[in-house]
Prior knowledge:
The chain is an alpha+beta fold. The protein is built from seven helices and 20 strands. The strands form eight sheets. A four-stranded antiparallel β-sheet has the order 11-10-7-20, with no helix packed on it.
Amino acid sequence: MKFKKYLLATTALISVASQPQPSLAQPPTLTYSVGKYQAQAPDWAKITWGTLPPVQESGYLSIPKNLIPQFGYDPSRSWSAGQQVDSIVMLGDVEDAFRLDSFTLNQISAITPANSAKLTLKDFGLMEWQTPQSLVKAIPSLGNLNVNQVQPIRDLFIKAGVSGGGKIGQIINYNPKAANLTLGNLDLSKYSLNSIPRLNITQINKFSGWQRSFINQVPNLDQVPFDKMPLPIQSGTGVVGVASVVLGKAERGDAKVGANYFVSGSVNSRSATIPVACEAGKECAYMELGDLAGQGGSLYGKRWASGSSQQVKGGFGFLSVVNGGKEPTGRLVYGPGFKVALIGVNESKGTADFGLFFRICVRPPLGPRTCTPYFIGPIPWIPVSENNLVILGAGG
């Protein structure tokens, strides 16, 4: 399988390399049973950003420099096959899905088993682009402290030629140069997180440019289980079907089989799955479903088409042009954080392989939120065998 990725911007056409990397890695699971049927459901209490299997294809997003001011920050990035997801996904990408930005460092450390005592400002990646002015905006009480009470800011002021005492807020007001010098000018590994008072109890979204911080740049955030997110992940088990039969690449789309026969499709701006039929005459591997209620059930005879066979419209807003405006057909089984796609079937073994796909989202300062199609992936997910349950979720 090989997905092709493209970014079409108003000033550039940028191709994205795709290099599949096979992997058998799978997340921790729980056995979910309904009558005689079973499914291996994800154990969200044991799955974290840091433990998700690595992405299987390389790629990049490149935003022309003249367009970056419209976004408020540069969402451009690149990734390689085998790279961990927590080093690819930025906080702004999943703002609406999990609200990671509402965490404080203290709340994260209370959930995770990691020892935070030796962490430094360097471990909190977004500190690199903070300034005394942005820190005071995030933590207003800092403005009332004497500069000698906050060592990183004192040392930064000294670099700007400001020495002696005085309140931080007053110095910021009369010395714009010192106010806007970034902490990245210091060796942040020399300062503990406690060197900035109230830093640990301040929500991440109070800091300037928090959206462009990668998940692994926030101390211990990659160790928080998905069921402990500020907005916990959906279990997906609200809707389940039965995997009746899987059919391979020899299958072709049929004009008589419309969208109402499919449970897979595209995702709209309201994070709802819109069923899409396979194009007539084109390759259409799929899994046919049964319903726990029998032939009278709403899922009976429905099809989940393979994302390796079918690409559908995805994304919304300006970023919807990324990847040619296409994403693999699939479903929002667990909510809008990622899309689940069928990525391969083995007719002889009666098995279906699945993968997760992520997207990039930005909320510009003066415009509506915009997202790419779900095109970062696949991340190997839980396979399904014929006559076992298939977790469908509500679909959005």
